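_Full entry_
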Amino acid sequence: RSASTLRVAGVPEHFNAPFLLARQRGLYEARGVDLEWLTTPQGTGRMADMLRAGETDVAVMVSEGAVAQVAGGAPFRIVGTYVRSPLRLGVYVRAGSRVSSVEELKGKVFGVSRMGSNSHLMSYVLGHQQGWEPARDVPLKVVHTLGGAQEAMSKGEIDAFVWERFTTKHLVDSGEWAFVSELPSPWHPFLMVASEEALARKLPEIRNAVEATLPVCEEFKANIGGATFAYLAEHHGLDLADATDWLGSTEWACRLAVARSTLEKTQAALTAIGVLEAQVA
């Protein structure tokens, strides 16, 4: 029978390499799935819009974004866990900035890719951890993408930006940005989310796609013959030290299961920072 199309959206980051590799090798096709990978640099907020509009069937989203959307009544469901090790975010300012600690960022403008995104939510989590009132002490400006954040930072339109450490490291190495602090996510960072329509019509394809991706995740983690390091250098510009650090701290789950603790911790944090009004079951 002909392969059934399954559209999967995700950010262009190293975590998602197993999807691209499995597709290149024809592993989805072998299971009767024509997997269309939709690279979405704008992140969680954009992927949520795509799910709503029927432009994608599945999205690999940061947990806090996925939980905020679903708890807020969005027409999709969290169906699985993709990465289970904490996401290592960094807090950044422009190189040469007078800011050298998180405490000094109170009241400074934080760039966010869009409202409801990971950068928005984690900027608020940072403020909450400092005992600030996020709505008052963490003013936000939408910058859409990492490139947009670079531009806004260089113009002085934003003072700080929260983003994944290894994706932004080249900006610190080049002397454009300065690293202030690490901000690890306190829950499983990447979840798989599917639209209700896709769950009704394409559940076997979703299951087959996840099962085909898992062994590639395991192989990528194992770095057999240095293949993962070579891929990270070629596609993501990571040198050996960074690749070793990143791979050593990254664990994939890639299963259609979600830990209750992830949902509970994420909802508690979202409620505390005012993104959710109250926790839902």
